[in-house]
Every structure is written in C-alpha cells, then in structure tokens.
Amino acid sequence: MTDITEARRADYDIDLIYLKRWSPRSFLDKVIPDDILYSLFEAARWAPSAANVQPWRFIVAKKEEDRKRFLAFINEGNTTWCSNAPVFVAVVSKVAEERFGGKNPSHAFDVGAAWGFFALEATRKGLITHAMGGFNKNLAREALNVPNDYEIHAIIAVGYQGSKDSLNEANQNREKPSGRRPVEDFTFEGVFLGE
After folding, report:
1. What's 89's domain CATH number?
2. What residues form DSSP beta bridges with 128?
3. Distance in angstroms (rounded) separating the CA atoms of residues 41 and 9
C-alpha cells in the first residue's frame, strides 16, 4: 500500500482524509458488509443541494448478475482492472424538476457533492472508490432502465484495496496517488484570470 504522506502534501492545513482519498485500480474480491456499504450512501444523503431537491440517485450492483450487467457496458480498458470490485454504483441525477420550471440547473453540481461525500466516507471506512467515465451511456441507460429525464454521470467501483501486483503492467505503473495543482493555480481574486 502507498504511504499517502510521502505521495501527497497539503499546502494548507486540512484533514488527512482529503489526502488519503485517491482512485486505486486494484480491488480485492471481498464482500463489503451492508452496514458499511450503506453508510457511504448515508454520507451522500447529507450533501447540499439547491432548494433541497436532492437530485442524486444511485443504482447499486452487488449481486453477480447485476455486476455482469454493469461490466457489459463498462469500457474494456476499465474492465481490465475493475472486474474484481465487489460493488458497482451508477451515479445518476434527476434533471427534470418542476420547482425550477422543468429543469434543475444544478443537478450535476449537486450529485457531484453527493459523490464527494460518498468517496470521503468510503476512505474513512477503509474502502477505495474509483469513478469511471469510460462506459457506454446508451447501453447503461437501457440495461439499468434509467428514464430519459435522468442523467448518468459515472460508474463507481467500490471495494477493499488489493495489491498492485494483481494488475496488468500498464495499470501497475498507474497505481499511485496523483498530485494536485497548487491552490494559487485555480483561485482568482475578484475576476477570472486563468485559462
């Protein structure tokens, strides 16, 4: 396992949970107890949302038949490493909302906050998460029976971290926490100054 304190350092004082959260690819084939798994959704439940609409929806695949359904629409480049994950979660948001005149303009922003809470709680519980955008959205919509007024944002692999030796060589080389740009690169006082 990677020593996070050597791989990542904060420039300002923050809780270590933010540094510990990263997106490994090596998963153990180990069941997550329901009380632990659903605590991640409990954390997501408390994310902020515009007008308290809570547009997030999560489709969970823990049973083998459901996991196979997910693997059928996840891109092959991702299935090479995520197939051992015991749980997949589709992150979906409700776009249609009468309170906003038909469409919720912040549905994606709100579901992103919920996913962030979910990921941090997973880290706190000793789990790893890896969100994937590499999947066929049309096949996912059909396979998961997602109505057209909902948007599918990502598929998350959830589980316990395994050894990087279980990965192919290309993914072994990628199995390390990534750095981040300094705060000064993406904050601007008063007006937008960046690219």
Report:
1. 3.40.109.10
2. 159
3. 28
